[in-house]
Each structure stands twice: as C-alpha cells, then as structure tokens.
Amino acid sequence: MSVVTDGIEPLTCVFEDDGLVPNNPMPFVVYKHVLKLANDQPEKTIEDLFGANGWGDMWRNGIFDYLHYHATVHEALGVARGHARVRFGGDHGQEVEVTAGDVAILPAGTGHQCLSASPDFSVVGAYPPGPKMQVTRPTPENYRKAIKTIPEVKLPRTDPVRGPDGPLIKLWNRTD
Fold first, then answer.
1. Adjacent-strand bridge partners of 28
2. What does the pLDDT look like over 34-73, one tens digit per residue?
3. b/e string for 93-104 if b means 16 or more Cβ within 10 A?
4. Alpha-carbon gap, residue 59 to 73, rounded angstroms
5. Full-prediction pTM beyond 0.90?
6. Per residue in 155-171, is it b (16+ CB within 10 Å) or e — as a string?
7. Residue 25 gets which letter from DSSP?
8. Are 103 and 80 contacting, i.e. CB atoms less than 8 angstroms apart?
9. CA of 54: how far to CAs of 20, 58, 83, 93, in Å?
10. What radius of gyration do the chain's Cα atoms show?
11. Of 147, 127, 131, nearest to 139 (Cα)?
12. Could you give the count of Cα atoms lying within 13 Å of 103 in the half-sphere of its Cβ?
C-alpha cells in the first residue's frame, strides 16, 4: 500500500535573490497533505519513502529557528508530526504553515527558518546523493561563496515523494 496520496500536485514558488540569501531560480516545491501517516512511526514511514526514492543522509528533528540555507545540496523536509509556521525564501520570502503529511523540497540556496511550531513538531530531512549538507548563515562573505557553488549543485535524479517520474524532475529541468 502506497503512503503517497494520489492526485496531489505540488505547489511551487520562486524566491528572488535578496543579496544575502541567494535562493535559487528553480522553484521551491511543497506537497500539501501528500503522505498517509496513519501509524505510530511516521518518521520511519517518511524515511522509507525518501530512501526508496534515492534521497538519503537523513535526520530527524525540527527546523532551525534562525535563517539559514544550504549552498551545496538540495533538501527535502517531510513533516512527520505536528505543525509549524516556516518562512521560506529568507526575510522577504513566504510564510507557510506545514503540517504532518506535507513535504517541502528546497533547491540549494533556499532560505528557511521556523517561526513557530507545535510541541510535537517532527521533521525528517533528506538529501539526494552528493556533498554533505552544510548550514550556511546569511552573511556577505557566505553569499559571495554560495552564488558560485549553488549553480554547480547536481540535479537529483528522483523526486523524493514520487520517484524518477515525479513532478520535481520536470520542475527542476534546467539547461546548463
């Protein structure tokens, strides 16, 4: 039985470079209510799905309450429990209420920060094969480095939710 709800199309948004948070010309992607988590181990359910779709190097936790981004990797965030208000795209980005069953996929450079969360908020983070994740704070020096590394980050071969034929593959099909 699939843990992915059929017929859910992802929402997308492109965030502008603000001079400190580079963001990415590829869209931020969020699947709302896409995962069926009707069990007592929702984190494991998400880990199994992400792993089956080639996104590994996973962790379980929340989302940092300070603005940061990852300049060397793309990131998937699967909400296992609870809910939170997260600002994506930096200080001038968009606030999104994420709840259990949602998955956000951030192209390298996308700023994010948890503004508030329920006490039970739990997220599984995952990355496609490639360099290790590094937390980057928005400073002028980090920005100068990031705008050079972000275009070099390899595209994932699969959508962490829908696999090799998932919408992410078409949405992120950049021509280098």
1. 13
2. 999 988 999 999 999 999 999 999 999 999 999 999 999 9
3. beebebebbbbb
4. 14
5. yes
6. ebebbbbbbeebbbbeb
7. S
8. no
9. 31, 11, 26, 29
10. 15
11. 147
12. 32
The whole-angstrom separation of Cα 4 and Cα 102 is 10
Burial of 92 (0-12, 13-18, 19+ CB in 10 A): middle
> How would you label 25-64 residue by residue, b for 16+ Cβ within 10 Å and e otherwise?
ebbbbbbbebbebeeeebbebbbebbeebbbeebeeeebe
User: What is d(CA 30, CA 96) in angstroms, rounded to the nearest whole number?
Assistant: 9
User: What is the residue whose two structure tokens read 């793309």?
Assistant: 74
pLDDT tens per residue across span 70-85: 999 999 999 999 999 9
- pLDDT value at position 39? 85
Q: Annotate 106-129 with b (16+ C-beta within 10 A) or e (fewer).
A: bbbbbbbbbeebeeebbbbbbbbe
For residue 31, the one-letter residue type is Y
Q: Are 129 and 113 in contact (CB under 8 A)?
A: no
Q: Which residue has the tokens 């992120």?
A: 172
Residue 155 region by backbone torsions, left for phi larger than 0, else alpha for psi between -120 and 50, else beta? beta
What six digits make up the tokens of 118? 């329920």
